Amino acid sequence: MSGVKEVYKMPESAFQGRATWKELPIGGVIPEPATSLRYKTGNWRALRPVLNEKKCIRCLMCWVYCPEPAIERLEGDRIRINYDYCKGCGICSSICPVKAITMVEEGA
Amino acid sequence: MSGNKVLGLSGNEAVAYAIKQANVDVIAAYPITPQTIIVERLSEYVNNGELNAAFIPVESEHSAISTCVGASLTGARVFTATSSQGLALMHEILHIAASLRAPIVMAIANRALSAPINIHCDHSDIMNARDTGWIIMFAENVQEAYDLVLQAFKIAESHEVLLPVAVNLDGFILSHSLEGVNVLDDDEVSKFLPKRQPIYPVDFEKPVTYGPLALPDYFFEIKRQQAEAMEGAKPVIERVGIEYGKLSNREYKPIKAFGMEDAEVAVVALGSSVGTLRAVARRFRKKGRKIGVLGLTLFRPFPREELIKYLEGVKVLIILDRAISYGSSGGPLYLEIAGVLYRSGLRPIVLNVIYGLGGRDLRPSDVEAIYEEGFKCAERGRAERELLWVGVRE
After folding, report:
1. Would you state the pLDDT for residue A1?
2. B65, B133, B189, B387: least buried by Cβ within 10 Å?
3. What stretches of chain B adopt beta strand conformation (E)?
4. Around B361, how many Cα atoms within 13 Å sit in the side-chain half-sphere?
5. How close, in Å, is residue B102 to chain A by CA atoms?
6. Does the complex come out with an ipTM higher than 0.90?
C-alpha cells in the first residue's frame, strides 16, 4: 500500500461481506456514523423463526424480548420478522405464550 | 547542515532531549529502572516550561500505553518509555496500538525480564514483544538513541506507515553512559518533524469509530492490511534515514556493515554489542583476517533483502542473541535469520551465540574467542557445536 487514503465513506462492498483488505479503511476504522443498519446480520442464522399469524394473539412479547430487535411492530400490534437482521436466536419462539413462532432450519 | 552543538548526555537524557525537541503533545509513562531518568527529565521539561506537553502520570505501564493509544488516535504526537516488566505489563495494549494503527514512539531501556529479578541489560523484554506489530529499532550508542528517536516520529506518523515504533537502547550500558552527543538545533528538528497531520483528526462533523468488533468476515482482511503496512514501512524507514543524514551528516540504514566486502566470517548482532564486535574486528582485520560485522538498526520490519546482499560469499555466519527462545533451536535473532537464509538458498555455516543475559558483560576476549571459533569452522567446513553459550560458567 502506498499511502493511506483519507476515506470518509465505507465502501459499499464492505456491507456485502466482499471488501478486500485493500478497500478497507485502515485499522478497522469505520469512517462514517450509523453504519450498523447497513451491516446485515441475517446470514448468521441457522434457524429461522416462522410466524403463524392465525395463532398470534398480538401480545407483543416477542417484540419486547427480541434482543436485535428484528421484530417490527405493525398496525394493530401485528408483527413482522425482519430477516435482514434476525440472527435466529429463538428467544421469540420460546417466549411466545401460544407457540405462534416455530424455528425452522435454514435451507430446509 | 546543523551547528556543531555537542552535549554530554546519558542515553536516557539524550532520549529526553530528543523528545523535547520533537515537541510531543502527550507523554504518559511510569517509572522503571533503567528507563526512569527519561521520564524524570521529561517531567522537568514540562514543569519548567521548556516543553509544552500534557504529562500524564499513570498508575501502571498498562495505563501508560493505553493513554498513549487514546491520545495518538486523537491526532497527538505521543511518547512513552519503559523497560522489562513494564513492557511485559503493556503487552496486550502493544498489539492494540499497532492494530489500530496508532503512531506512538516508545523508548525501551532494555532490561532482563524476571525471574530472578534483575535490573541489567538483555533483550528478553523486547524479544517478548517482537510480534506485537511494532516497528523495532536498536541503538548502538547514545548518539544513535538520540537520532533514532527523532526518526521514529517521522516514520510512525507517515501516512504510508501509521504504526508505533520502539527504539531500544541497552539498559545501563547506554541508558546510563555519558557520551558526547551531536544534537540538532531546535528549529532544524521542527522542520524535520512538523506538526503531526492525523488521518482522522477528532472532528464532530465527521465522526469515526475506532476499534470496532471485526468477526470472521473482516478480521483476516484487517490483519492482512496490517502485515502489508509493516512491509510498506521499509521504504519509508530508508527514506527517513537518508533525509536525516542530509540534516545531521549521520545517514541511517537498516544495517550497518563493517568489513563485509570480503568477509569469510561474519557476525551479526543488535544494540551496544555491535561496537565491541567492530572494535575487535578491527584488530583482526589488521592481522589480515577476514571478519565482517553486521549491526542491525532495524529488527521489525526485518531487513531481509539487505541482509542477504551482504551474505553471499560468507562461509560462517555468527548470530548473537541477548535473549533465549526457550525450547526452540536458537535465540530469536538466530531463528529470524535462519528463516531468511533458507528462503535465499544461501547455506553458510551458522553459529548461534547466546550471551549477556541479565547484564553479563560481553568482553573483547569473549568476542575474540567467538571469532576464533568462527574461523575454525570456516577451515573445517563444519560446526562442532551450533549453539554457543558465551560468558556463562559451565
Report:
1. 39
2. B387
3. 5-10, 26-29, 54-57, 78-82, 105-110, 135-138, 165-170, 178-183, 255-258, 265-270, 291-296, 298-300, 316-321, 349-355, 387-390
4. 5
5. 9
6. no
Q: Which amino acid is at B101?
A: R
Three cell numbers written together for B252 = 541511517
**pLDDT tens by residue, B14-43:** 999 999 999 999 999 999 999 999 999 999
- Which helix (H) or strand (E) segment is A51 a member of? strand A47-51
Q: Are B160 and A32 in contact (CB < 8 Å)? A: no
Cα end-to-end span (Å), chain B = 52
pLDDT of residue A66: 97
Nearest to B101 among A27, A30, A33 (CB): A27
Q: What confidence tier does B104 reach under pLDDT thresholds 50, 70, 90? A: very high
- Mean pLDDT within B111-125: 98
Which residue ranges make up each domain of chain A? 1-39, 42-105
Q: To 5 degrees, how large is the angle CA B26–CA B150–CA B185?
A: 100
In chain B, residues with a C-beta closer than 8 Å to the C-beta of A22 are 225
Angle at which helices B142-157 and B219-248 cross, to 10°: 130
CB–CB contact B160 A4 (8 Å): yes
Q: Contact B100/A20, CB-based, under 8 Å?
A: no
Render B139-175 in DSSP notation, one character per residue.
Answer: -SSHHHHHHHHHHHHHHHH-TTT---EEEEEETTTTT
Instruction: Out of A2, A21, A29, name the one closest to residue B160 (CB).
Output: A2
For chain B, give the percent of residues with pLDDT over 90.
Answer: 97
Residues paired with B240 in a beta bridge: none
pLDDT at A6 over 70: no
* Nearest residue of chain A to residue B220 (CA atoms): A21
Residue in chain A nearest B230 by alpha carbon: A1
Return residues 114-173 of B near A (CB < 8 Å).
159-160, 162
Rounded to 5 degrees, what are φ and ψ at B187? -70, -30
Q: Please state whether the peptide bond connecting residue B332 to the residue before it is cis, i.e. omega within 30 degrees of 0.
A: no
Q: Which domains does chain B have, with CATH numbers?
A: 5-248 (3.40.50.970), 255-390 (3.40.50.920)
- CATH class of the domain whose range is A42-105: alpha beta
Chain A residues close to B217, C-beta within 8 Å: 17
The one-letter amino acid code at B259 reads: G
Which candidate from B162, B221, B232 shows the least CB-CB separation from A20?
B221
Q: Please check whether residue B324 is in contact with residue B333, taking contact to mean a CB–CB distance below 8 angstroms.
A: no
Q: What angle do CA B232, B331, B312 make, to 5 degrees?
A: 60
**Hey, which residues does B256 pair with through a beta bridge?**
B295
